Amino acid sequence: MQTKLPLWSGALATLALPAQASVFPDSIEITPVPGAKPHNIVFILTDDHRYDAMGFMGHPFIQTPHLDSIAAEGVHLENAFVTTSLCSPSRASILTGLYTHKHRVIDNQREEPEDIVYFAEYLQKAGYTTALMGKWHMGEESDHPRKGFNHWLSFEGQGHYYPPYEGYTLNLNGERLEQKGYITDELNQYAVEWLKQQKDSDQPFMLYLSHKAVHADFTPAERHKGMYDGKVTLPANHKPVDYGPNSPRWLRDQRNSWHGMDFPYHSEVDITTYYQNYAEAFASVDEGIGMIKQTLKEMGVYEDTLIIYMGDNGFMFGEHGLIDKRVAYEPSIRVPMLMQWPSQVEGAQVVSEVVANIDIAPTLFEAAGLEPPAHMDGQSFIPLAQGKEIQWRDYFLYVYYWEKNFPQSPTVFSLRGDRFKYTTYYGLWDTDELYDLKKDPRETNNLIADPDYADTIEEMKDALFALLAEAGGMEIPMNKPHGWDRNKRYRARGGDQAADFPAHMVLDKPERDNAH
């Protein structure tokens, strides 16, 4: 017996605007909330951090004592997701409060649209001193200061854990600054120094600390190498026998690809060692969280500062036979998200509602005592953390747009709720997917051909396309390919053979007998 799926609580407008119509306002207008006080904000973002790679969640080997302290003193938003599991689109959604098809930063190569509007611009106009430290990654070859930030320290593209050559520089407020050592340590130190400069200021501050870590190729600091020797185990669901009978054909083919277990990054890299490097690289991030918390205490603003931590997307270490992200499976789209605000939110809480990266900007607006702009898709999750009864979404939209450079990953449209996830693909002859996440959290039993779930599939399909229809989402945005095609397969592991079609798509007899 299927469970009746609730309709989405938000407005499902079906008006589709032209593909390039802008949703951004022409000017920055702020609306203070009467009587509200602007609070200091620290937003910490890491790259490729899995939702479960935290010590307090009972991870089998990763230790994150300072991240754990945020959960102990604040709130763990245990069902946090990104609307596109890719660096630049996710960051654009964080900064704009918009779905990817609206802000139109669809890949990692191009710069953001000229008319884009960031939450930092509103905070700046409201009197905040704002700073960006670290990875921007909207524009692969650009690190110039962006609007909305009083202080800017960044680098081109992904950046480098260590300087790639002598004299390699970062961009500090439009000037060149030499990177001297391990980038995570440097960003932590620059962030602490900037915070200390705000101690005697009459202005509230907003720090956006955006780490390169823990993006591939995972490189730990020298002091952390080997800290997990002999302790690493791979996640479950990474063997061919784990595929269900209705798993997509593209998924089984992708196993032997740039993003697959059988040919990872076109190499024979050992995924267990790779996972260890990843875990050890995070240790410096965790140390930095401790440094920032201690600095806020020394400044006397700890109790009244909102700290939010999250990852920009997930990462797979073998689930579904894949590595990396992009796809709509849980380890790809689900991220760690924690917050603390001692003067406003009680500690040791867990929020179970589905929250997303589009909710960050509206949440920061509430902390700043401002009404969120009407054009944003997200909403503040502070009331959830405070235990208030508010109307919240039943599910959210996930999109990923096909990149010619990585042809093994199709265009993905997915609707993820608290129980069901429906996923469909564009331009692909393959099966759709429906998973009951309560019964099947590893997403191994595709229910798309199960007649008991026919109503659920139709309701989720209708809701998905209604969401896409808003502001040009039914128009597929495209970009010219950039870089090299990662389209090779490895013959030694069955690379010259394609996967079979899913069973429910193959007929034993014609379905029509009246064709003439």
What order do the helices and strands come in, and which of them pair?
Layout: E1 40-46, H1 65-73, E2 75-77, E3 80-81, H2 87-96, H3 100-103, H4 119-125, E4 129-134, E5 151-154, E6 169-172, E7 175-178, H5 183-197, E8 205-210, H6 249-254, H7 271-299, E9 305-311, E10 316-317, E11 323-324, H8 330-333, E12 334-335, E13 337-340, E14 349-351, E15 355-356, H9 360-367, H10 382-385, E16 395-400, E17 411-417, E18 420-426, E19 433-436, H11 454-469
Parallel strand pairs: 1-8, 1-9, 2-14, 3-15, 4-5, 4-8
Antiparallel strand pairs: 2-13, 3-12, 5-6, 6-7, 9-13, 10-11, 16-17, 17-18, 18-19
Helix pairs in contact: 5-7
Description:
- There is one protein chain.
- The protein has 516 residues and is α/β, with parallel strands linked by helices.
- It has a domain at 40-398: 3-Layer(aba) Sandwich (Alkaline Phosphatase, subunit A).
- It has eleven helices and 19 strands.
- It has helices at 65-73, 87-96, 100-103, 119-125, 183-197, 249-254, 271-299, 330-333, 360-367, 382-385, 454-469, and strands spanning 40-46, 75-77, 80-81, 129-134, 151-154, 169-172, 175-178, 205-210, 305-311, 316-317, 323-324, 334-335, 337-340, 349-351, 355-356, 395-400, 411-417, 420-426, 433-436.
- The strands form four sheets. Strands 7-6-5-4-8-1-9-13-2-14 form a ten-stranded mixed sheet, sandwiched between helices.
- The longest helix has 29 residues, at 271-299.
- It is globular, with a radius of gyration of 23 Å.
- Mean pLDDT is 93; it is low at 1-19.
